[in-house]
Write a structure and sequence with these properties.
By secondary structure, the chain is α+β, with helices and mostly antiparallel strands. The protein is built from two helices and 16 strands. β6 and β7 form a beta hairpin. The protein is globular. Pfam families: DUF4232 (PF14016).
């Protein structure tokens, strides 16, 4: 049953991203002229586009500090008692998760209908519970530290406050059209910068996903709000 639910969730994710890209094309937004905050080289900017109430926007001029922390975090528990699961709560009880308390990673691609879908995962490495709410900031970066492509856009969604116990994780979806399908100009990033909601400092993660669209037709990258778990 869990595997069936996972496939349904991944299918819904892919369909949502395809529908958004269709709307952009219908409105003449196939290119990357959407206005957004300018991005300094090597910074993780907030995602552009519509945002739901309560979502977070990291400052575009913030300079990331180092890479993702290493080490193994202890197992967390959800309301159901499952290790490494986060708890979604309607109200914020714990302190907001700070960049220094988190480890970032990029999960396995779940492709479909010409789309590439990666979960961006943040794991609580501290000894206390903390919360995430809203969208991450994200930016692809070359080996030389230059940002590749425009700032990602936000898929529509209603943010929930996700409480992370020590060792627990939350994930946000990162989706884009496969450049070989869309014929967008592509590049292969060396890393992905991930900025937690309401934080200025970013975490640096090695990018495992190969080429990404950086300009031209269907070159937009989309982000979803954080949800409990790892997106696997």
């Amino acid at each position: 049953m869990a595997n069936n639910c996972t496939r349904v969730r991944h299918a819904a994710w892919s369909v949502s991203a395809v529908a958004l890209l269709g709307l952009l094309t219908a409105c003449g937004g196939g290119g990357d002229s959407a206005g957004g905050p300018s991005t300094l080289s090597g910074t993780a900017a907030p995602a552009t586009g519509g945002s739901a109430s309560g979502s977070a926007s990291p400052a575009p001029s913030a300079t990331p500090t180092g890479g993702a922390t290493d080490g193994t975090a202890g197992a967390g528990t959800s309301s159901g008692g499952t290790p490494s699961e986060a708890v979604s709560a309607s109200g914020s009880v714990s302190t907001r998760c700070h960049t220094s308390e988190l480890r970032a990673s990029v999960g396995r691609d779940n492709p479909g209908a010409g789309q590439e879908n990666f979960p961006i995962v943040l794991t609580n490495t501290s000894s206390h519970s903390c919360t995430l709410r809203g969208y991450p900031g994200a930016a692809f970066r070359s080996a030389a530290g230059k940002q590749l492509g425009p700032d990602p856009k936000r898929s529509s969604g209603s943010p929930d406050t996700v409480t992370l116990t020590p060792g627990a994780s939350a994930w946000a979806g990162l989706s884009f059209s496969n450049p070989e399908v869309s014929e967008a100009k592509a590049a292969t990033p060396a890393s992905l910068l991930v900025t937690p909601p309401d934080e200025r400092d970013a975490l640096t993660v090695k990018w495992p996903g190969g080429q990404v669209p950086v300009s031209g037709n269907s070159s937009s990258v989309f982000l979803t709000v954080f949800a409990p778990g790892t997106g696997a």
